[in-house]
Structure formats: structure tokens, C-alpha cells
What we know:
The chain is an alpha/beta fold. It has helices at residues 15-26, 38-48, 61-75, 99-126, 150-170, 213-224, and strands at residues 6-10, 30-35, 52-55, 80-83, 132-137, 175-183, 197-198, 204-205, 233-237.
Amino acid sequence: MTEVKVAVVSGATSGIGRATAIGLGKAGYRVAILGRREAELNETATLAGARYSGVCDVTDPAAVHRYFSDVRSKLGRIDVVFNNAGKFMPQASFGDTDITSWQDMVNVNLNGAFYVAREAFRAMRDQSPQGGRIINNGSISAYVPRPGAAAYTATKHAITGLTKAISLDGRAFSIACGQIDIGNTATDMTSKMTTGSLQANGTMMPEPTFDVKHVVDAVLYMAGLPLEANVQFMTVMASSMPYIGRG
């Protein structure tokens, strides 16, 4: 009998992370979740039927290490990690980008993603049978920027490099790594886009969104592949959003 796979979701307190944790639970995975906000994390744990839930700040490498150690101790192994935790900051022209805000964005979106992926990689390398899959949450901004979003854009471009590096180094250990780039899914983060977002020509324009369930379906597809196959990059977006031709 094949053992049920263990899937870890970071940033699981709301939005895409919560929806994906619930979707993985419904699909039969043993789900482990992490996030900073305890009350919201507990709510997700209930909705997803999570087997393990831990408050964890991804910017703290020691805390991330403890979390992954606890998951392995309690659930035995780690098969899939959705490396999802991230944040956005208010728009500001490049010359007005606040240094503290820049550092905070790098700490969460890049350093945090590295700490989670590193612990996932080490767990998958060292377990038996060896291997697993890491799915990094990139963004449309991993390819093209929005106006006034230098810090977010830089960190998401960096995630693409991180994904490629993990894919290359993971080959020897049956570790697959892919990236999902999501455009304007309907969550709290994108709620204002339907009333107007700043465009490259300086105008404000409403942008279409799409149901988060399509993101969940995409992650489930990526997670469900055998380790000899991989989705390296997948873009899921509203069909008419201003991405192709942005700028």
C-alpha cells in the first residue's frame, strides 16, 4: 500500500496559501502548514484537516529549521513543499523606495523562500526513499514589473533564479523544483485591482481577476506528477489581464 504523501504549505493563513492547503487536504495529502498569525493558521488547519500546524516566521532561519524538524518527526517525511509565503508593499517610484521596506521585502520574499526551500531540500535529500518536489510561488512580476514595485519585482525575479538552481542541484537527489507564476487571482491582495491599478502609461485601469481554485488545480497537477516529470514554470492568470504587452 502506497503511503499518503506529506505536503507542506507556507504562508497558509490566507489567500492562495489557505486555498492550496485546503485543496491538498481534500486531495488526500497529509498537510502541514505554517504562517505567522496563530488564529488564522488554526482556522486554516481546521478547514484543511491539517496533520500539523506551526506558527513560524519564515524570515527566521532557526524557526524554519525547527518547523521542518518537527514535521519530519511527526509525519515521517516531506514529499511536497509549496513555498508560498510572501508580501507586497505600497507602490513607490524607484527613487522613493524606502530602504527599510526594501529590506523587509527581501527578508520575506527572498530570504524566507530560501530558508524554506533549503530545509525542504535537506529533508528530501536525507529521507528514505529519497526525493520530493518543491513548488515556488513566483509571480507575473518574475518576468515583467508593475510601476513603482522595484522591491517586489527584484525578489520575484530572484525566485526564478532560485528555482533554476534548486532544479539543477536537486537532480542528484530526485528532488524536482518548479515555479508557478500567478496573475491577479481573486484574493484579499488583489481586491483593489478590480477598481483600478496603476499602469505603465500612468493611467489607472481596473484589472480582471480569476478564481483561486484554478491556482489550486495547477498546484495539485504539479504536485501530483511522478518525480521523473516536472513542470518547470507555469503561468496561471486572468485571460485578459495586461500581462502580454504590459508597458
